[in-house]
Amino acid sequence: MKVTSDEGIDIRTFSRLAFVCLCLSVTSLHAADDAKFRTDDSPDKSLPWFQLVDGKFPPLNSAHAISGELIQVDHLERRFQIRVDRNDTQQAGYMDLPLDGVMLPYGSIYYHGAPADLQDIPLGTHLHGLFYTRAVDDKSRSNAKPDRRMTNEAAFKRCLRLEDDFSFYTRQKQSWQIDAVNLPEKKLTATLQHDGTAVGKAKTFDLQASTRVRKGSGFEKLDSLVPGQIVQFNITWATLYGAGRILEIWIDEPSRELTTAQQLERHRDQVRDRGLPGWIDEVDDDAQIVTITFFDNVDLKLFDELKGINEEPHGWPFSKREDDPKAPKGGIAVARECLMTYDPVNDRKGGNILAINKVPIVPGCSGVQIKVKCCMLLEGHRPTRIVRFYPATWKVNALPHEEQFHGRE
C-alpha cells in the first residue's frame, strides 16, 4: 500500500524533495560563507576587496600587499606613513606619494626577523606591508598633496603586517647572493635566491660609506663584501633612484642570528612591561568570567608564562579568598585600538586563570584563549573590546606618562 501525505504526495517522494531542499539550503549557506573577494592574484579585477568585520579576524590571503619607505611614525597610536614604491600602475605625477597607515589591533610588526614596535624601525627603512581598505565610517583626512593628488593605494589604510626586507625575505626562506662588487663606484649586484635557485633577475644596489657590514658579533669594512656571499640587507630609497641604497648588510648566518635574537629580547621586554594584547570574546556577568583571545603580534613563547604561579593569596591585589593561590592568575587592563592602556598599575582587574584553550589559528590570532575569573568587571570588559593581560608573575611598573591614555579623553 502506498502511503501519502494529506496533500496526496507520496511520502517517499516528499522525503526526497525535502532532502534536496535541505541540501540546497546548506549549499547556499556555504556559498554565502565562501563569498569571493579580490586578492592580489585574482584574475577577476572586478571582485571587491575583503572588508574587515569588527571583532573577527580576516581570512588567509585576503590582504593587499604594498611596499614603501617609512617616512613618518606615531608609535604611540601605531600610525605611520610610507612613500609607496614606484610601479607600472602609477602615472608619472602619482609616483612617490605617501600612504597613511594604521596598525590593526592584531596587526604585526617585524624588524630584523623578530616581532617589533614601530619605534624600533628607523625612518627611511624600506618595508613590506599587508593592508585592508579603510573603515566605512573613517572620515579622517587623507594625506594628499596641495593639488589633491593621492597615491593609487590611498584607500588601503589598515595594516595587518609590516616588516623590513630582512624579515620579509627571511620569512620566505629567501636570501641574496652577491654577484659583483664595485667599490670605486659603490655598486653591489645581487640575485635573490630560494633553495639555491635564482628568483628573478640580478639587481644592482648602491653602497654608501655609511653602509654597516655585519659579520659574526661585529662589523666589517666594505671591502669584506665579495662575490658568492649569501647575504641579507635592508635598503632605503627603493625604486626612487634604482633598486635602492643598502643601509646594512649581514654577510654570514651568525650575524643574522645574533641580530634576530637581540630584537626578540627587546620585544619580549616591551611586552612584559605593557601586557599581552588580545580582545574579549565573551563575558559571563554572573560568574564574572572573562574570555580573551590573544593576538599573534607577540612572540608565542610569551604565552608559556601564563602558567607561572604567584602564590601570594591576599597580597596580590586582585585575588579573592576563594581563589586558588597555587593556580595561575593575572590582571586585565583595558586598552584602546592602538593597544595603549590607561593606568595599568592601578586599573588592572583579574584573578585565577580558569582555562588556557587552543582556538583556530588565522591571520591575527595566536591560537591561545584564556578564561579569567575577575574580582570585578569594568565597563571595558565587553565582547570585542581590546585588553592587555599581565600574568601575575610579571612585575607591573608605571609606564612613561606619554604611553598612558589616562586623561586624554
Give an overview of the whole structure.
The chain is built from four helices and 20 strands. The strands form three sheets. Strands 7, 8, 9, 10, 11, 12, 13 and 14 form an eight-stranded mixed sheet that branches. Strands 15-16-19-18-17-20 form a six-stranded antiparallel beta barrel. Helices cover 14% and strands 34% of the residues. It has three domains: 64-164, OB fold (Dihydrolipoamide Acetyltransferase, E2P), CATH 2.40.50.320; 173-269, Beta Barrel (OB fold (Dihydrolipoamide Acetyltransferase, E2P)), CATH 2.40.50; 275-403. The chain is mostly beta strands and 409 residues long. It starts with 10 loop residues before the first helix and ends in an 18-residue tail after the last strand. It has helices at 11-33, 165-171, 253-274, 344-347, and strands spanning 64-74, 79-84, 98-111, 114-115, 126-133, 156-164, 174-182, 187-194, 197-198, 203-206, 212-215, 218-220, 230-236, 245-250, 276-284, 289-295, 329-334, 349-358, 365-373, 386-391.
